């Protein structure tokens, strides 16, 4: 999942970025709305973590603008404002969830993934792909009933494919979802991850559509 | 010292002053009447004596005329009419009216008035030598005349006295009505109402009081709004750096997992969470304390609960444990401030999550009779501890990281809006658990 984080407090922003990245997601972090606005127009994000008080404007105005132009990006607000009226205002503006500072970093990941799941029709907690069973909530994969250990990146690749299960996902789309701006990426990185996943979950778990990309088996 | 009613004080003062003046006026009028009546009656006696003077002279000179005059004089038999005696030179009665005593009046032979028992006598020498005319007025007649005159003067005043009392009362109450309205308006300004008093067309004496009270209310409102704003801003300014410290420390703690200082790092994380919670509660207490003058908007508690329940259910340790049952209709309107009522319910839910049995449901029951009950499992809290829980920094259990402020905040808000918080343990009909019961007043 590629996540856009807008937070002006540098220590908090860096910690959230690091923690979300450790869960296997790519995080683009901006301290101001202006560059974030540019990024959201050019990159296809899977979720947005949004602070409300930013040096160059209000996060809620940014969110309203996003919704006005029909962008359905899942949004989780990170704010120090904990009042019911603030929460109602945030939800009315189009937020999907609302986390009040200070928060547990694990809570951020959990909420982020929960709203993402709601958006991408993965409300079903368990998905079967051939002999492989995927539990999105607990990030557990089972092959013929036996749990298989996957790294965060490997799981992230499966999520990208699972999110667009009915379509073919290009290598660039997977790279976009997994790597933030400025992150070093080798030309064969995605192939390496796909290869590792196939070794663990079976060759047919991920199908290669020649010249187009990948999709989950079945 | 017992306070006295200004109205009754004014009425008493005016009535007693009026009665005093009336008494003084009556006495003066009575005295003047008595003086005047006495003078008139004395003049009348004197005049009668003067008229008898020539007749007496003729009668003395001509005995036949005397006999004629006697016949005329003796005809007066009315005991209250003037009595006459003509005394001869030797002191014998030469002539008298029928109503005069048979013996001469015991008065000196001197011109003038003399008071003797039963008569006031005017004596005057007759025109003939040695003769005296004595005209006597019965005291009964004079006193009757005096009493009648005084009665006619003072009596009507006596009738007006109760009327004056009614008029004074009416005038006082009418004049005090403006003050009464002002008093009512000021009396209705309290923690829940600091709105300015409208212009009531008060008299010039009271208008400055209204203006001064309104200025004071305005200043108080501004001060409280500033305090609330400060609390809200402080919350924001404090939470962000605490969030940064907590997040960085959590990262460090994760990086130290399995290392020598991992446990210490975890302890610091918990300390930061505790500090954060305490700071938040103190700000909430300050904010709800500044709820003096909180807005009086109609707030639907069901909407507030919906937002809070949705929020808490997203917490891993709550989820579906939070069960809501609504017995009432589609609305539960309470007069107050949305955010302060939100803080109230949030604290109760947090309290149930923190101290309730983790494997038992947290029930929110919205009942008819404007009640909201929050029930959670857990051991029984002794009754003597329950009331103390409403005081700041008192915890019902040593377990949990609470600051002991949540229920104090709830109690403070409920009292401000005219409602109540009752704590019950065990839950009614059960052998364990804790119940917080909120009763809200009817909306205006």
Regarding CATH, which class of the largest domain in chain A?
A: Alpha Beta
C-alpha Rg of chain B, in Å? Answer: 50 Å
Secondary structure tally, helices of chain A: 8
The CATH architecture of the largest domain in chain B comes to 2-Layer Sandwich
The overall average pLDDT of chain A, rounded, is 87
Largest sheet of chain B: 5 strands, antiparallel
Overall mean pLDDT score of chain B?
A: 84
Number of structural domains of chain B = 3
If interface size is counted as residues with C-beta under 8 Å from the partner's C-beta, which chains form the largest one? Answer: A-B, 30 and 36 residues
What does this structure look like?
The complex is a heterodimer of chains A (218) and B (444). Chain A contains 8 helices and 13 strands. By secondary structure, chain A is of the alpha/beta class. Chain A is globular, with a radius of gyration of 18 Å. The mean pLDDT of chain B is 84. Chain B has 3 domains: 6-155, Beta-Lactamase (2-Layer Sandwich); 188-293; 294-444, Heat Shock Protein 90, CATH 3.30.565. Chain B has 9 helices and 12 strands. The two termini of chain B are 36 Å apart. By secondary structure, chain B is an alpha+beta fold. Classes of the chains: A alpha/beta (218), B alpha+beta (444).
In short:
The complex is a heterodimer of chains A (218) and B (444). Chain A has 218 residues and is of the alpha/beta class.
């Amino acid at each position: 999942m590629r996540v856009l984080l807008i937070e002006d407090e540098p220590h908090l922003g860096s910690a959230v970025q690091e923690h979300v990245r450790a869960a296997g997601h790519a995080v683009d972090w901006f301290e101001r709305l202006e560059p974030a606005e540019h990024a959201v127009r050019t990159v296809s994000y899977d979720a947005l973590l949004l602070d409300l008080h930013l040096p160059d404007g209000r996060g809620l105005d940014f969110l309203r603008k996003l919704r006005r132009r029909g962008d359905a990006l899942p949004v989780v607000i990170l704010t120090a404002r904990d009042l019911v009226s603030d929460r109602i205002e945030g939800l009315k503006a189009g937020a999907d969830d609302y986390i009040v500072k200070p928060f547990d970093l694990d809570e951020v990941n959990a909420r982020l993934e929960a709203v993402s799941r709601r958006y991408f029709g993965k409300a079903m907690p368990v998905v079967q792909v051939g002999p492989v069973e995927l539990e999105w909530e607990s990030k557990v994969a089972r092959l013929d009933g036996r749990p298989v250990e996957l790294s965060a990146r490997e799981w992230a690749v499966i999520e990208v494919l699972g999110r667009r299960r009915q379509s073919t996902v290009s290598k660039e789309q997977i790279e976009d979802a997994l790597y933030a701006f400025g992150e070093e990426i080798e030309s064969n990185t995605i192939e390496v991850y796909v290869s590792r996943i196939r070794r663990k979950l079976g060759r047919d778990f991920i199908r290669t559509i020649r010249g187009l990309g990948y999709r989950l088996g079945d | 010292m017992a306070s006295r009613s200004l109205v009754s004080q004014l009425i008493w003062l005016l009535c007693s002053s009026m009665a005093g003046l009336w008494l003084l006026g009556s006495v003066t009028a009575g005295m003047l009447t008595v003086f005047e009546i006495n003078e008139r009656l004395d003049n009348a006696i004197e005049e009668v004596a003067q008229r008898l003077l020539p007749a007496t002279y003729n009668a003395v000179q001509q005995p036949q005329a005397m006999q004629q005059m006697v016949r005329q004089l003796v005809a007066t038999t009315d005991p209250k009419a003037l009595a006459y005696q003509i005394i001869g030179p030797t002191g014998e009665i030469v002539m008298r009216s029928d109503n005069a005593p048979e013996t001469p009046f015991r008065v000196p032979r001197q011109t003038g008035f003399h008071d003797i028992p039963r008569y006031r006598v005017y004596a005057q020498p007759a025109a003939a030598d040695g003769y005296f005319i004595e005209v006597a007025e019965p005291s009964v007649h004079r006193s009757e005349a005096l009493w009648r005159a005084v009665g006619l003067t003072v009596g009507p005043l006596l009738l007006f006295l109760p009327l004056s009392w009614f008029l004074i009362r009416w005038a006082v109450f009418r004049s005090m009505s403006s003050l009464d309205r002002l008093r009512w308006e000021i009396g209705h300004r309290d923690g829940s109402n600091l709105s300015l008093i409208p212009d009531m067309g008060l008299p010039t004496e009271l208008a400055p009081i209204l203006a001064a009270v309104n200025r004071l209310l305005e200043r108080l409102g501004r001060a409280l709004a500033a305090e609330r704003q400060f609390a809200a801003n402080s919350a924001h300014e404090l939470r962000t750096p605490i969030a940064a410290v907590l997040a960085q420390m959590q990262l460090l703690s994760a990086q130290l997992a399995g290392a020598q200082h991992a446990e210490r790092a975890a302890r610091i994380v918990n300390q930061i969470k505790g500090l954060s919670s305490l700071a938040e509660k103190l700000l909430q207490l300050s904010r709800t304390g500044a709820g003096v003058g909180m807005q009086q908007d109609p707030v639907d508690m069901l909407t507030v609960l919906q937002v809070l329940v949705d929020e808490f259910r997203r917490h891993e340790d709550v989820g579906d444990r939070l069960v809501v049952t609504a017995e009432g209709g589609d609305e539960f309107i309470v007069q107050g401030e949305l955010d302060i009522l939100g803080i109230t319910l949030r604290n109760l839910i947090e309290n149930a999550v923190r101290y309730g049995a983790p494997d038992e449901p947290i029930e929110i029951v919205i009942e008819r009779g404007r009640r909201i009950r929050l029930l959670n499992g857990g051991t029984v809290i002794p009754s003597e501890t329950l009331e103390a829980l409403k005081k700041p920094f008192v915890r019902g259990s040593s377990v949990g990281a609470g600051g002991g402020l949540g229920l104090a905040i709830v109690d403070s808000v409920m009292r401000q809006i005219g409602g109540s918080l009752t704590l019950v343990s065990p839950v009614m009909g059960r052998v364990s658990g804790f119940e917080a019961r909120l009763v809200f007043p009817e909306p205006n």
